[in-house]
Write a structure and sequence with these properties.
heterodimer; A: 416 residues; alpha+beta; 4-stranded antiparallel sheet; 3-stranded mixed sheet; 13 helices; 38% helix; 20% strand; B: mainly beta; 1 helix; 4% helix
Chain lengths: 416, 135
C-alpha cells in the first residue's frame, strides 16, 4: 500500500479547491520540494529542488506551496494505517505513507477485489488516495504497486495473480526500479546485460551471490516469488536518536543556540522514554553554513558520557549544555545544531554507577508526571526553563497549513 | 518449621461500599464519536443552517465513513468550496437544502462537481447561541 503523493493529498483533504491543481510541499525551513502532486510533476518540478531556485516557475503556474505540516501528516498517516489494519491481522508500517499487509491465510479468493475495497475504504474514510500492489513477496508487491501507478491508474490496484501477469510486470520494470537496487548495482547489472527485472530474474544464482553478495541473492529470490525479506510487524527499537534542525536564521548568541540545543535534548529524552530506553552517551554538534563561503567556517562535535544511562530530560539537557560550553566559539554565524543520544540500553537494564547519587525512582516519577501533563494539556506545557519561550531558532514555515485534526483552535472553518 | 512473616497495611475506617461497583467515568469521545479514524471536527460560520440548530460558531462532528442518505446533514464540496446543507435525493436527482428560508434550494447538476465530504453526526453548540436558532 502506498499513499499517492501523501503530503499533497493531506493538504487537499482540507483544501478541496486544490484538486486538479499543482501542489508542492517543502522540507523543514521551506528548503526543498519534498512532495509534488501529479500536476506539479507534469510541470517538470523535480524532487529535492531548492524552492528559491524555482520561485518564478511556481508563481507563473500558480502552484500551491505548503510548508511541511508533520503534525497533520502524522495524524493522517495514523488514520490510514489503522484503517489498513482493520482489514488484515498483520501489517508492517514501512514509512509514513507505505505499509505491507500480510494477505496470507485470509478467507478471500479474489485479492484484486480486496485491494479495490481497501483502497475505496481508505479514500472514503480519510480522503487519502492509495495505490495497491499485490504479489508473492514484499519486493514483488512493491513492484506491483509501481506498476499499478504506471499502467492501472484508474483502478489503482495491480495483482500479479499468476505467472503471466508477474512476467508482464517484470518485463516492464527496469532493474534500477527494483526495490533495494541502488545506482551502483543498477549500472553493474546493465553493464552485464540485465536491463529489465525479467532478465535479472533469470541470472544464475551463483553469479548473483558472488557479484552481489547475499543481499543481491535475497533480492533475486524475492523476484522469483520466494519470500526472503523478513517482516517487521513492530517498529524496531532505534539504536540512536537524533534531533537536529537548521535554524530559521543564522544565530551567533550563545544563549539562543543553547536554547535550541536544550529543546532538541528534551525531544531526544522524550523519544527515549517513549521507547523505554536510556542512553549512555550524548553527542552534540554545531556548525556554520558551509555554503556561505564569505562567512568564517566552524563545525565541531563532542561526546558527553553520562555517569549512568538515563532518559531523564534534566540529565540529558545538562550533558548537552556541558558539551556545548566546550565546543561553542564566539564570532561565528551558526546555521545548525543537533543532539544525538547513543549507546542505548533498555530502561530496565541500567547499570547504576557506584558514585551515582541521583534518586532514580523519584526522577522517573517526575518525568512520568511531566509527560502526562504534556500529553493531556498540550505539547511542552511543562518544560525546563533553559528550553526558553522565544524560540528564535524556530523553523521557517511561511506556508504552514493548520493542525486541522489535533488542535481544537485550528479546526477547519466552513462558511455555510 | 519455617515461619513466614507478612507485612500488611491495616487502614482505619470503613471501606467504601461502592468499591466493588466502580466503573469507568463516561468518556464523551466514546459517546459522540463512533468511528474515530474517519471523524473530523469543523467549525461553521454563516446562517444558512440556523433553523437546523447550526448557528455560527457551531462545531460539527463529521464522519467520512458514512454514506449519506436522504435527509442527512452533510458537509459537501461544490466547485471546490465547502458547504453544509441537508441532502435530499431520489433515484434521479439530488438537492442541497438550506435550513433557513432566506436561502434557496440548490439542485445539483453535473458541472457543479458535487462531492459529499462527510456526514454530520453531532452538533456542538453553546446554549447562548441557541436563541439565534429560534427566531
Amino acid at each position: 500500500m502506498d499513499c499517492n503523493n501523501f503530503y499533497c493529498s493531506c493538504e487537499r483533504v482540507f483544501n478541496p479547491k486544490l484538486e486538479g491543481k499543482p501542489v508542492v510541499v517543502l522540507s523543514n525551513n521551506d528548503g526543498c520540494v519534498i512532495a509534488r502532486s501529479e500536476e506539479a510533476k507534469k510541470l517538470g518540478i523535480v524532487m529535492g529542488t531548492p524552492a528559491y531556485m524555482i520561485e518564478d516557475q511556481l508563481r507563473q503556474h500558480n502552484v500551491a506551496i505548503f510548508s511541511s505540516n508533520y503534525t497533520l501528516y502524522g495524524d493522517m498517516s495514523d488514520r490510514v494505517m489503522k484503517t489498513f489494519a482493520s482489514f488484515v491481522p498483520r501489517l508492517e508500517i514501512y514509512s509514513i505513507d507505505e505499509a505491507f499487509l500480510d494477505l496470507h491465510d485470509l478467507p478471500y479468493h479474489d485479492l484484486l477485489q480486496l485491494g479495490v475495497t481497501i483502497r475505496k475504504t481508505v479514500r472514503q474514510n480519510t480522503g487519502i488516495p492509495v495505490t495497491v500492489g499485490i504479489a508473492q513477496t514484499k519486493t514483488l508487491a512493491k513492484m506491483a504497486n509501481r506498476y499499478a501507478k504506471k499502467k492501472h491508474k484508474q483502478t489503482g490496484v495491480f495483482w500479479a495473480a499468476n505467472e503471466m501477469l508477474t512476467q508482464e510486470m517484470l518485463e516492464n520494470t527496469e532493474v534500477g526500479d527494483i526495490w533495494g537496487i541502488g545506482h551502483q548495482y543498477s549500472m553493474f547489472l546493465k553493464r552485464n546485460g540485465f536491463n529489465t527485472a525479467a532478465e535479472f530474474v533469470k541470472a544464475p544464482d551463483e553469479w548473483v551471490r558472488v557479484n552481489m553478495s547475499v543481499v543481491g541473492h535475497r533480492m533475486l529470490n524475492e523476484l522469483k516469488g520466494i519470500p526472503s525479506v523478513a517482516w517487521e510487524f513492530e517498529a524496531p527499537v532505534k539504536k540512536n536518536i537524533c534531533t537536529s534542525r537548521s535554524f530559521g536564521k543564522l544565530l551567533t548568541r550563545k544563549e539562543d543556540i543553547q536554547e535550541a540545543l536544550c529543546n532538541y535534548a528534551a525531544a531526544c529524552a522524550l523519544k527515549l522514554r517513549q521507547q523505554k530506553t536510556c542512553c549512555n552517551t550524548v553527542h552534540i554538534f554545531i556548525n556554520t553554513n558551509p555554503h556561505k563561503t564569505d562567512d568564517a567556517q566552524y563545525a565541531r562535535t563532542i561526546n558527553v558520557e553520562l555517569q549512568s544511562a538515563s532518559n531523564n530530560t534534566s540529565e540529558i539537557i545538562k550533558a548537552a549544555c556541558q558539551g556545548f560550553n566546550i565546543i561553542y566559539a564566539k564570532g561565528y554565524r551558526f546555521m545548525k545544531c543537533g543532539v544525538i543520544v547513543m549507546d542505548l540500553v533498555p530502561e530496565d537494564q541500567i547499570q547504576v554507577s557506584l558514585f551515582d547519587e541521583a534518586d532514580r525512582a523519584r526522577n522517573k516519577q517526575v518525568m512520568a508526571a511531566m509527560d502526562k501533563v504534556n500529553r493531556s494539556l498540550g505539547k511542552e506545557i511543562v518544560r525546563f526553563a533553559v528550553q526558553g519561550f522565544e524560540k528564535k531558532y524556530k523553523l521557517r514555515a511561511d506556508h504552514l497549513s493548520k493542525k486541522y485534526t489535533t488542535d481544537i483552535n485550528q479546526i477547519l472553518k466552513v462558511k455555510i | 518449621m519455617e515461619t513466614k512473616y507478612y507485612q500488611a497495611e491495616v487502614k482505619a475506617g470503613f471501606p467504601s461500599p461502592a468499591l466493588d461497583y466502580m466503573e469507568e467515568r463516561i468518556n464523551l469521545n466514546d459517546v459522540l464519536i463512533q468511528h474515530p479514524l474517519s471523524t473530523f471536527i469543523i467549525e461553521c460560520s454563516g446562517d444558512s443552517m440556523i433553523n437546523a440548530f447550526i448557528p455560527p460558531k457551531a462545531k460539527l462532528i463529521v464522519d467520512k465513513s458514512i454514506t449519506a442518505q436522504n435527509g442527512d446533514i452533510v458537509v459537501a464540496v461544490m466547485n471546490g468550496d465547502f458547504t453544509v446543507k441537508f441532502l435530499k435525493k431520489n433515484d434521479i436527482k439530488c438537492w442541497l437544502i438550506p435550513g433557513n428560508s432566506k436561502y434557496r434550494e440548490i439542485e445539483i447538476t453535473e458541472e457543479m462537481n458535487l462531492q459529499i465530504w462527510g456526514v454530520v453526526v453531532k452538533i456542538i453548540i453553546d446554549p447562548k447561541d441557541v436563541r439565534k436558532c429560534m427566531l
